[in-house]
Amino acid sequence: MLNVAALQMVSAPDVAINLATACRLIAEAADQGARLLALPEYFCLMGQSDRDKLAIAEAEDSGPIQDTLAAAAQRHGVWIIGGTLPLRTEDPQWVRNSCRVWGPDGRPRARYDKIHLFAYDNGRGERYDEGRVLQAGDAPVAVEVDGWRVGLGICYDLRFPELFRALMQPAPCDLLVLPAAFTHGTGRAHWELLLRARAVENQCYVLAPAQGGLHPNGRRTWGHSLLADPWGEVLAVQAEGEGVVAGTLRRQRLDEVRAQLPALAHRRI
């Protein structure tokens, strides 16, 4: 079995405040026995504009955000999936929205750069276009955590099932982790529906740490960080506000679902 936790935040435009909150939630989850902890998308900054990411962008494996999470992983002896943070590209006008993973020794183990960039306009003044500052990633990434195969996705990636099908090769993932900052409107309509669908069709656990609440910059995110099992059942969830959403992955449950309905073995395309 593997004890996991999704850490829900309501991040502000102040990196220091967000890092302090993240460290407090990491400590709380570790004290509860979590072995793998995941932070939400943009846990380190929910700025006033998209371009605020450029000012705090770090080089890979260098900078206060990454140093803080590496130290926390080592201090508590846990795996940390660091939601997302902006990492520099060769062009200072662009960054990658990157999910980093640290092992219990504080060493980096994986990096996934968000492939699908969110764009949305509801016609009533709520408008987003990540492509104005983000450079898209181009490769699926999975990482081994204590014998469990963990696939990584980020927020808008959730709407593209082909990414998660790709992550099921050459071996199926046991867990999908999707840090997110879903808007309140799209989250209310689709968040749980899509997460449970990804769990069911890939017959694996899904852990989704989210931003959840009204942020100081005026944005409202949906929250509802959750853990779903391979049958699509929601095992734990928190609607809004900071908190730890914890649960246990059980190998027996995973094997049971895949044996009763061997859909992964029936794939043809």
From TrEMBL:
UniProt keyword Hydrolase, yes or no: yes
Keyword Amino-acid biosynthesis among UniProt keywords: no
Short name of one Pfam family: CN_hydrolase
GO terms of molecular function: hydrolase activity
Domain CN hydrolase positions: 1-251
Keyword vocabulary terms for this entry: Hydrolase
Protein name: Carbon-nitrogen hydrolase family protein
